[in-house]
Design brief:
17 helices, binds ligand C2E, TIM Barrel, 6-stranded antiparallel sheet, 42% helix, 2 domains, 601 residues, disordered C terminus, 8-stranded mixed barrel
């Protein structure tokens, strides 16, 4: 019975529904992303705007304050302390000589006189807003369009000087709702200079300058100024920020929609391609287009062949080859992988059964996918095939990747059952998976295969160059064997050997070969690469091949573990290689007859 989730997957996994889903999903994702971008762009634009307006205002504010302080100092220096015409004349002179002093006045002992008619100084409406350096400061807190009231008033003793709003307004235009505030150092109150009261309460320790803050949703920006007494801050209306966000968002929306449509289109194409590839793969098994190739594995110290990895190839009717990296993941997602693994097992034994019988030290390793290890199916099938061909279970090993260990418990159980039957278990592409290394202690495993990426990094100046030696050390501590994959250069082989890796596989020794080429290679008996003196002299003894550690067999019998002598390897390799281009795939020989697998199942 088909699982309901499987049925749902199959009904949705069609070009149009998938394209629609992809369009909707990417539209949602891009909407969120666009909002994030619009928000941050708008905040940045708002910050830059407040910063430049604030700096203009600060410049003017300090000019005004400077003149007010100068005016007070001048008045302090003159001797008159009574409201008579001489003092009024002094007040008028100070006001006249300083552009930013709107009014100068004297208030003491019930007397009040001013530089401006009618010469009576205005009464301050409230106590000073803040004090600093023996000066009292009043900040104007009105938005009234009247220019006359003091925007800023300073007092020292009986003298007061003030500037008008106009002197500050021409540095910054608050008509769009901008408010300018002064924060005395150490205070949590922002006092309005050009804004409607009341003052704002700000959080103590809130970001000091640079960043834009939101106060009740309104953008609030503190200028970095270096005045020891106060800091200026600007508050913009909330609508301004929203308007900026909307403007950015409207710019990004068409791009987002276009990308979502492109995502949908790409998904449509991909699903179409995969469906047609899936359909073709269905027929490929029937039409015998899938073929098995064998990449030899050598004992690194002695360079003798100990076995091979069976690798699948798919030659399409037009002669083109499809890489297993394309069709295996597809077969895994459609469930066709079971039939492929079964086919591979049967093919390996049909093609190489007699070779394995006559070379009991040789083994072939088979790649298993997640669904092959999540059920106990493979053990029984292999058992029947081995019995039919008279091959020992130690001669078939199974490779699983860390990605294939999705259900760790079931995988452990089934791999342990395979080992109990006498098969070896290898972890393929070790180090590239996401699993925790702790699984190694619980998993029934005999050998780790170091991924090509780590072999490539060997000796390079890359962060991963030490991974391969590290894996070897770890494997030794866990009493596991090590095979290094993707060896292309002699230095890599030597280095791995000196680090203690047991076996190697790669184009340096041989690419994936057809069954007949592999037989020829083994029949020839030549070592995999010219054996030069082993530098360390560490391992002169012939190999204890992987299969030698199988339970039914005694360990490492040097003479019998190695393959008898040569045939010209390079010539054989070139003729028999399936290596067209980098992936080692090339011409394919005719098919041997195959017994139906269904009989075995
Ligand atoms: N550049 C370079 N490449 C080298 C060298 N030596 C070996 N290789 C390639 O590295 C891959 C090794 O196999 P893998 O890690 O098991 O990775 C395999 C395996 O995970 C999967 N695969 C292949 N056949 C089967 C199969 O029958 N069943 C399952 N489940 N997976 C398979 O597909 C993957 C790719 O297989 P291939 O394309 O045959 O690619 C093979 C092999 O041709 C080298 O020196 N240089």
């Amino acid at each position: 019975m088909q699982h309901p989730l499987g049925r749902l997957y199959r009904s949705v996994y069609r070009p149009w529904p998938m394209a629609l889903l992809a369009t909707l999903a990417s539209a949602c994702l891009l909407t969120l992303l666009g909002l994030g971008v619009a928000l941050s762009q708008a905040r940045e634009a708002q910050r830059a705007d407040l910063e430049s307006r604030g700096e203009r205002f600060l410049l003017r504010f300090e000019q005004v304050l400077g003149q007010l302080r100068q005016g007070l100092a001048t008045l302090e220096l003159q001797p008159l302390r009574r409201c008579d015409p001489g003092l009024v004349e002094s007040l008028q002179r100070v006001s006249f000589e300083h552009r930013f002093i709107h009014e100068a006045s004297f208030v003491a002992d019930g007397q009040r006189c001013s530089s401006r008619p009618p010469h009576a100084a205005p009464e301050p409406a409230r106590p000073a807003d803040f004090h600093s350096q023996s000066l009292d400061y009043w900040l104007n807190a009105t938005n009234a369009p009247d220019e006359d009231p003091a925007a800023l008033m300073l007092a020292h003793g009986p003298f007061r000087v003030s500037s008008s709003r106009g002197h500050l307004l021409d540095a910054v235009d608050p008509s769009d709702g901008l408010g300018v505030y002064l924060i005395p150092r150490g205070s949590t109150q922002a006092l309005p200079i050009l804004a409607a009261p009341p003052s704002l309460t700000i959080l103590p320790g809130a970001a000091d300058g640079a960043a834009l803050q939101l106060l009740d949703g309104q953008p609030f920006y503190r200028l970095q100024g270096n005045n020891p007494d106060y800091q200026l801050a600007l508050l913009a209306p909330r609508a301004q920020l929203l308007q900026r966000i909307r403007a950015c968002w409207e710019r990004l929306l068409p791009v987002g929609l276009l990308l979502a449509l492109l995502g949908g289109g790409a998904t449509f194409r991909l699903v179409c391609q995969r469906q047609s590839l899936g359909g073709e793969l269905q027929g490929a098994l029937r039409r015998q287009e899938l073929q098995v190739y064998y990449q030899p594995i050598v004992h690194l110290a002695s360079r003798r062949y100990v076995g091979a990895e069976a690798l699948m190839r798919w030659q399409r009717p037009d002669g083109s080859l499809t890489s297993p990296e394309q069709f295996i993941p597809l077969a895994e997602s459609t469930g066709q992988i079971r039939a492929i693994t079964d086919f591979l097992l049967q093919e390996v034994l049909e093609q190489l059964g007699d070779l394995l019988r006559s070379h009991p030290e040789l083994y072939i390793s088979i790649n298993l996918s997640a669904c092959d290890v999540s059920a106990p199916r493979i053990g029984a099938l292999t058992g029947r095939l081995l019995a039919r061909h008279g091959v020992r279970p130690e001669q078939i090993a199974f490779e699983v990747t860390e990605r294939g260990l999705i259900d760790l418990q079931a995988a452990s159980r089934n791999l342990a059952a395979l080992r109990a039957r006498g098969h070896r278990v290898l972890i393929d592409d070790f180090g590239t998976g996401y699993s925790s290394l702790a699984y190694l202690q619980t998993l029934p495993v005999d050998c780790l295969k170091i991924d090509k990426a780590f072999v490539d990094a060997l000796g390079a100046d890359a962060a991963s160059s030490g991974v391969a030696p590290h894996i070897v050390r770890m494997a030794r501590a866990l009493r596991l064997k090590v095979i290094a994959e993707g060896i292309e250069r002699e230095e890599q082989a030597r280095l791995l050997d000196s680090e203690g890796a047991d076996y190697g596989q790669g184009w340096l020794f041989a690419p994936a070969l057809s069954a007949s080429a592999f037989r020829e290679l083994i029949g020839g008996g030549q070592p995999a690469a010219p054996l030069s003196p082993v530098p360390s002299g560490r391992r002169q003894a012939a190999p204890g091949v992987l299969i030698a550690s199988a339970p039914a067999r005694s360990r490492a019998s040097p003479a019998s573990d190695s393959i008898p002598l040569p045939g010209p390897l390079r010539a054989g390799r070139q003729a028999a290689s399936v290596g067209a281009g980098e992936r080692g795939m090339g011409h394919l020989p005719g098919k041997p007859a195959r017994q139906s697998l269904e009989n075995d199942l």
